[in-house]
Each structure stands twice: as C-alpha cells, then as structure tokens.
Amino acid sequence: MASDDISRSFLRIRQQSLAACERLEIEDYGLQAEAFTSPPKWHLAHTSWFFETFLLKPCLEGYEACNPLYEELFNSYYNGVGGQYARSQRGLLSRPTVAEVLSYRQQVDRAIIELLDDDSHPQRDTVLQRCRLGIQHEQQHQELFYTDLKYSLFANPLLPAFAELSAGWRPPIFPAVEQQWRQYEGGLFEAGLPVDAVDFSFDNESPAVRVYLEPFALSNRLVTNGEYQAFVDDGGYKNHQHWLADGWTLAQEERWQRPLYWLDRDDGGWEFTLFGLRRRDPHAPVCHLSGYEADAYASWLGARLPTEFEWECAARKQAFTPLVFDADRLNPQPASGDIPLLQLYDACWQWTGSAYRPYPGFSAGGGAIGEYNGKFMANQWVLKGGSCVSQSGHVRPTYRNFFYPSDRWQFSGLRLARDV
C-alpha cells in the first residue's frame, strides 16, 4: 500500500469512528455496564493513544503529548508502556471531557499525516507498518464500540435503541435458507500466512502451518434463531449431557436459559438489538452465544464446531467474498450482491473448536507493541468469519479472532460441522 493510500485509509477509518458516534447523546459517551466493556469515549481516546504511543512519540521529532497522564488513562494492557487505569473504572472518567477527547484526536490526526508525508523519514518502513497496524486496531475498536454500547444499553430497563428506524436505519432482513452440507476431502492443508506475504496481517496469522485434515462437512449457513429455539424447548439448558463441564457450571451459576438479549414475553419471543426491542426473527442467525452454548447446541444435534483449519480450508476452496459494511443497515452483504453456495462471512463471528494458540514458529515482536496478540494465547477459542459490525476490508480467510468461551456480548454465533 502506497503512502498516499495509507494516509487516505487512515483519515477514512478515523472519520468512521466519529461517524459512529453521531447518534450518541452526550450521556452515552461514558456508559460502561461491566468491566469487560468500555465507554465510547474511552474507545475514541484509546485508539488515538495507540497512534501517539507507537508512532508519534518514537518517530516524530519534537512531538509533544497532549497530556502526559493520558499515557496511563488510555493504556489498555501494554505493560511495556507503563501503568494502566483500572479497566473496571473507565466509566468514571468524566474528565477529559468529550470535547477534550475530540481535540486530542485532532492533534493526533494532524501529527500522523505530517509523519506520513515525510518520505525521507529514516524509519519510513516502521512508520508505514505501524500505521497499518493502528488502522486495523481502530477497526477492531469500531466493532467493540457497537458490542460494548449494545451491552450497556441493554442494562437500562428502558431498553433504548441506538439507531431509530425513523432516522432511516433499516433492520437486516434474513430470508429462509435451506440447510445443506458441503463436503471436503481433507488432506494436507497450509493454513495461515507466510511472514510478510500480504500487505497487512496480524502476527497471530503467521507463520504458515501445514495441517492434515480428515474429510469433513460444513453447513452452508449459520444456525438460526428458530433452530436454536428448538434446543431451548428441548431442555438444552437443563441437560448437562450436552455441555462441557466448565460450560455447564457457568450456565448454572449465571442461570442461563437462553441466548443473551433474548426476551420471552406473553406475546412471544423478542430480541434486543441496536434498533431496540424487536420481534425475534426465526430465520436470522442466532447471535450472542458463548462458545460453551455453541458447543452444547452442536453436541445436541450430534454435530460439532469446525476447527479453525477446516473453516479456513473451506474459505480457500471458494472465491473470497468480502463483506461490504453498510452503516445504515448494520448488516453485511456479499460485495457482488450474490449469495455464494457457502456464505462464510455472515452476521456473526463463528465459534470454532480450536484453542487460540500460536502457530509453530510464532514469535511475538519485541517491545511493548509485541504484546498485541501473543500474550493472550491461552484459555481462549478462535472465531472466524466476521460479523454485522465488522468493517469492510477487515475480514479474510486467515483472520483469527479470539475470545474466552464464556463470552456472550460479542456478535458470535455458530456454523455446524461434522465428520465424513
């Protein structure tokens, strides 16, 4: 990617973050319902902190930080940078104000463009590489903006909508699609990417790894609300036989009876969405499942979750169909407008049965920036695909999303797999 292209991409992504906030009220910027969520204002500041910390301070001569205390307030988890303000208390940061955070973003944006315009910079390659990483990092936080805000709004008994239909927003429409199984021969498969094989990839996608796959089959679509309702009706949350031990214990402790955001009332099934409370669509992919719930459902049907390598193998066997993020619909569509036989990139990230571990030969980068992915490679599961809040250009066959199997607040669903 050329320097001018990076500058344009940087400004476009930064503007997207601001555009997402246009429907917020000032009171919304500090919402934080749980420790695992972050307020919208914090996301705006942290993404600026990332560019400031890893690009401007080490690479732009004479750069003066907006406020030295921001280094701690908006540091997420980088121990190599220094201390971090308690994650569970980010909602208490009424200061800096929203206006001050927006001013901070403007200062960072101007300085980044100045840095990118310097074609003779002695660290030119490092500048471009880290700017690409910062752009992808901000896209990740654009997803988190929606997931975190949805969870915090759901904590309000008023169940307020983030996007009102009267403002021109349209909820996604899901046609009924017959389930079919796509079979794959298996064999030796190369997953991941060679280091520096593409313009950008995260370090956890490399190096390429060769794995042997037994013949397998994947469902052509995600599990739907209606199908998951059958699991609930059959006592799926009351029968331990379908559950992993840790998942069963957690489901009992948290009194799970249905997916997050499902509400059952006398007049039928409802679901809380970014458009507010809406009738539950039986054809829509079931969403906001933990990995444990996804695994239990698959077990109930006599199927299983795919491995990350099976999923990637299927993705490589067909033409890559990227998502086009339509901010007015919060619903991804295939770029061509055609639905392929196997719609891999869909409304939800898809749980796999693979543990999030490094590929053989992986080595985390040096310094604080090396903490980006490597230190989280334990006790989490890999998710593949993308979701309705994934940005266009931010999904690919090798992308490895990861969360703890107990997490439900992400836009996560499941696709079934089985042995052949």
TrEMBL record:
Superkingdom assignment: Bacteria
Residue ranges of every copy of the Sulfatase-modifying factor enzyme-like domain listed in the record: 183-331
Keywords for this protein: Iron, Oxidoreductase
Pfam families from the UniProt entry: DinB_2, FGE-sulfatase
PANTHER family documented for this protein: HERCYNINE OXYGENASE (PTHR23150:SF36), SULFATASE MODIFYING FACTOR 1, 2 (PTHR23150)
InterPro entries the UniProt entry points to: CTDL_fold (IPR016187), DinB-like (IPR024775), DinB/YfiT-like (IPR034660), EgtB (IPR017806), Sulfatase_Mod_Factor_Kinase (IPR051043), SUMF_dom (IPR005532), SUMF_sf (IPR042095)
Organism: Candidatus Marimicrobium litorale
Protein name in UniProt: Ergothioneine biosynthesis protein EgtB
Pathway the protein takes part in: Amino-acid biosynthesis; ergothioneine biosynthesis
All residue ranges annotated as the DinB-like domain in the record: 11-143
